[in-house]
Specification:
By secondary structure, the protein is an alpha+beta fold. It has 20 helices and 28 strands. The longest helix has 36 residues. Its EC number is 1.7.2.1.
Length: 906
């Protein structure tokens, strides 16, 4: 390798280090997203703002120099390097500002991002102007770069507004505009302009005639479509935004025609070519889905909820995949080192190409289809593994060049000036077929694993027809809608022996299903989904219901009445109701493993100690200033909170597990802590299997929009200002509310009264009931209706503070906040051996030192709370010892509302 070639290779390596670094950071966040704040935001912005934007700065400058046949000076290199370094600092500031809730830091970072990219665009425009008539035929590519660079500052400004905090109406509008400007404007325009020359280069074919003209004509169409999308979003006009997407698609059609022509003349076979081709397919598919989803929405609120349908196709399918494909093509060539080294680098990035491509496309498809959440989780891991493998291979190719793999005699080839060295021959057809089969098998296993873990969500179960009835040969077809906890119609009449076809449509905002007592089921239906359920031969009356917890009890039942003669076939002495079993499983839940009890309550008392890895719920009141809390100059705090709804298999008593629906992965949900005047900006993300919502008692506002139910995969913004003190409940308000609360969807917001004195220890106890279903199953709605709880607990686990006592020292002042979350029982909180000298009940001090009651020698023995009430008590423990605390409704204490406070000498 010559000295000049080596210097060029080192420059390219240094320039692309940030790209690979941000990609690896994205992978790390993806693996650890459950434990990180703002994980969804991080994944999108580390990829797009970090990796993709860095790559655009590096490679748009590279292509501009090549297309203008411009001699690159040391001065221009230094300026380009300075812009790249400034961009990294800006991205770090933005990320740190969002994660810490420091808006000023976010503002500075976003302004720096916009300034750097705008300066980059200005530099490219000046280069075109300086080239004059010497500029090459493909200067239209640089026009795309300049246009894209002008758009990013606008997208950054929208991001700053979002970080500052907007009401829900404007938040959803600005989010849509922000995404459109950055993805369709900055990223997609850059890609379209680059593919004019890069795509034929990857395919090793000539640029089709008229390609420059088509690309030039497409630019104003694309910009017009983008402007209409942004205008429609900001105006809350769903049809206008959808029309803008269609105009944008038309522009892509104009620019894409010559690209398709090039692909016909030289079909894509290498990993880079196929990656870029698939990225374009995901771009088109995502935009079509977006246009349909937004265009068919009745209101902007509905449209905003559907914007997320395009996130995975556009961010991962398009942006990530086109970046990986471009790097896999450009990397080996610009690294250089001679033909042999280039071939060695190409061979490295081609390893396992078929497996990676199939896993990524198939996994993405599973992620966007209405599959069970566990299937989607496994599929996302396959997508992540495929992307990570590509990054690892790119790093391996770089290391190979630095080691000197291959022949180092020939000089490096400039990608935009000379034809690249041909790649190694494509893998034999048999090998590719085998690799594709292996990847497909992995996808099938992912689906099978997810379905096996959650068969009800996949609509599986026994599906026997009534084989004792003679078939009539006729078919009865009925349309049924699920809406407002009812099936419409609520009853069906079908002649005996007919084949019954039920077309079930969920027109509700919540997830439903239809399960028949014959074992037939539709599986879970997302809002708007339609599934056809078929019973081959109907020979008896059937009963149907929604098996989502609590929905049957609220009236979601369907009667199927059989009329006419019911002639029986010769079914032998064991003839009966095919598929019908009396197994005692309500709501269509499948029976547990052989030998397991039907009711988890049967396991209570079988062991005394919590299972391994079960940590006690931290009862300590969190600090006022959390990692995402900001304080303005006037002292006003803003708490930014993300609550991810998820289904969690959780131990609730020694040896007893239930699948709880949780806020933030725990039940109760995270305790929020503030003072009067504090602002709370809450992002609710539904990663669960059914619809959920949230209701904060700590805020006073119209419930219609912020408390609405959102479907799995959707996000909701809930903003309120705390105007009154107390310990306030928050909970899911989706019906049946009793089931959602009983299955873990509740938490506390502590708002301190003015002048609250400091104490030595401060704890929060949230009492709730558990109505146990099957082992590992969900709440038993019948027990809720009967008001027959199996457990009454503090902070989600029976007697947990007997195993891990709370701590205090003699003479310390201890404050205990208590909330009765229910859903049906209150509490009478008492500390055995202690007396309260301060009682704060529902916003009022009923006992306080220095007041008349205290001066008269008054004290308190219990804090009585009905459901959804709260308060706090204070006490000092006179001597060392173990002080039990209980609900003095003793049956509840014996059900698990019991703990210990260990007091030691100072």
């Amino acid at each position: 390798m010559s000295a000049a070639s080596g210097a060029r290779t080192r420059r390219h390596l240094r320039a692309n280090v940030p790209v690979l670094g941000w990609l690896l950071a994205t992978v790390v966040v993806a693996f650890a997203h459950r434990a990180l704040p703002e994980a969804g935001w991080l994944l999108v912005h580390l990829l797009l703002l970090g990796a993709v934007t860095s790559a655009i700065l590096v490679w748009s400058a590279h292509f501009t120099d090549a297309l203008l046949r411009r001699r690159v000076t040391d001065r221009s290199r230094r300026w380009a390097a300075a812009r790249l370094v400034a961009l990294q600092a800006a991205v770090v500031l933005v990320v740190a500002g969002v994660l810490t809730g420091r808006w000023t830091m976010t503002l500075v970072g976003a302004a720096l991002v916009g300034g750097v990219v705008a300066a980059h665009g200005a530099a490219l425009a000046l280069q075109v102007r300086s080239a004059g008539t010497l500029a090459g035929r493909f200067t239209v590519t640089i026009r795309y770069y300049v246009a894209a660079s002008c758009l990013l500052p606008l997208g950054a400004a929208a991001g700053v507004l979002l970080a500052r905090g907007l009401d829900e109406t404007w938040h959803s509008r600005v989010v849509a505009a922000h995404g459109a400007i950055n993805l369709l404007g900055f990223v997609a325009l850059t890609v379209v302009g680059t593919l004019l020359t890069l795509w034929p280069t990857i395919l090793r074919t000539r640029v089709p005639d008229g390609a420059e003209r088509a690309t030039r004509r497409a630019l104003p169409v694309l910009l017009t479509g983008l402007a209409v999308v942004v205008g429609g979003a900001l105006g809350g006009l769903a049809l206008v935004a959808a029309a803008g997407v269609l105009v944008y698609l038309a522009g892509l059609g104009v620019a894409g025609r010559p690209l398709a022509q090039a692909a016909r003349s030289a079909p894509p076979r290498t990993f880079p070519a196929l990656s870029v081709a698939w990225s374009c397919a995901w771009l088109l598919g995502g935009l079509v889905a977006l246009a349909v989803g937004v265009g068919t929405a009745g209101t902007w609120t509905q449209a905003a909820g559907r914007v997320g349908v395009a996130t995975v196709p556009l961010v991962v399918g398009f942006a990530l995949q086109v970046l990986l494909g471009a790097l896999s093509s450009l990397g080996p060539v610009v690294l250089g080192g001679g033909p042999a080294r280039v071939r060695a680098s190409v061979a490295t990035v081609e390893r396992g190409a078929t497996v990676r491509l199939v896993l990524l496309q198939g996994g993405l498809l599973l992620c966007v289809l209405p599959v069970p959440s566990l299937v989607r989780a496994v599929a996302s891991m396959l997508v992540l593994g495929s992307a990570l493998a590509t990054v690892v291979l790119l790093v391996a190719a770089v290391r190979g060049v630095r080691r000197g793999d291959g022949d180092a005699k020939a000089p490096a080839t400039d990608v935009a000036r000379r034809t690249p060295v041909p790649a190694e021959p494509a893998a034999p057809e048999r090998r590719r077929t085998g690799a594709a089969a292996l990847a497909t098998a992995s996808l099938v296993l992912a689906v099978a694993a997810g379905v096996a873990l959650d068969p009800a969500a996949a609509g599986l179960g026994p599906a026997a027809s009534d084989s004792t009835t003679v078939a009539s040969g006729r078919t009865t077809t009925v349309r049924v809608e699920a809406h407002a906890m009812r099936f419409e119609p609520a009853s069906i009449t079908v002649p005996a022996g007919d084949r019954l076809v039920i077309e079930v449509t969920n027109v509700d905002t919540d997830v439903h299903d239809l399960t028949l007592d014959s074992g037939h089921t539709t599986g879970r239906l997302s809002p708007g989904a339609t599934v056809t359920l078929v019973v081959d031969v109907v020979g008896r009356d059937l009963e149907g219901w929604c098996s989502v917890v609590g929905h049957r009890q609220m009236g979601m039942v369907l009667g199927i009445d059989v009329t006419g003669e019911q002639p029986l076939a010769d079914a032998g002495e064991h003839a009966g109701h095919a598929g019908h079993t009396d197994d005692g499983h309500a709501d269509g839940e499948p029976p547990g493993p052989a030998g397991a009890p039907d009711d988890a309550a049967a396991l209570l008392g079988t062991t005394d100690e919590p299972g391994p890895g079960v940590d006690p719920y931290d009862a300590t009141l969190p600090p006022l200033d959390g990692p995402t809390t900001t304080t303005a100059a006037d002292g006003t705090r803003t708490h930014r909170v993300r609550l991810d709804v998820s289904d969690q298999l959780t131990e609730v008593a020694p040896g007893v597990t239930q699948t709880l629906w949780t806020f933030g992965g725990v039940a109760p949900g995270p305790t929020l802590h503030g003072r009067i005047g504090d602002r709370f900006e809450v992002t609710l993300v539904n990663d669960g299997s059914i619809g959920h919502s949230i209701d904060f008692h700590a805020g006073a506002l119209a419930p219609d929009r912020p408390m609405r139910t959102i479907a799995p995969g959707e996000t909701l913004e809930y903003t309120f200002t705390a105007t009154r003190a107390g310990i306030w409940m928050y909970h899911c308000s989706t019906m049946p509310m009793s089931a959602h609360i009983a299955n873990g969807m509740f938490g506390a917001v502590v708002i301190e009264p003015d002048g609250l004195a400091p104490v030595d220890r401060e704890y929060v106890l949230v009492q709730s009931e558990l109505y146990l279903g099957a082992p590992g199953g969900e709440v038993d709605a019948a027990k809720i209706a009967a008001e027959a709880p199996d457990l009454v607990v503090f902070n989600g686990y029976a007697n947990q503070y007997d195993h891990a006592p709370l701590q205090a020292r003699v003479g310390e002042r201890v404050r205990i906040w208590v909330l009765a979350a229910g859903p049906s029982r209150g509490t009478s909180f008492h500390v055995v051996g202690g007396q309260f000298d301060t009682v704060f009940h529902e916003g009022v001090y009923t006992l306080r030192p220095g007041t008349q009651s205290a001066a008269a020698g008054g004290g308190a023995q219990a804090l009585g709370l009905t459901v959804a009430q709260g308060g706090f008590v204070e006490l000092e423990l006179p001597e060392a010892g173990t002080y039990p605390f209980v609900s003095h409704s003793m049956v509840d204490a014996e059900r698990g509302a019991h703990g210990l406070l260990t007091v030691v000498d100072p």
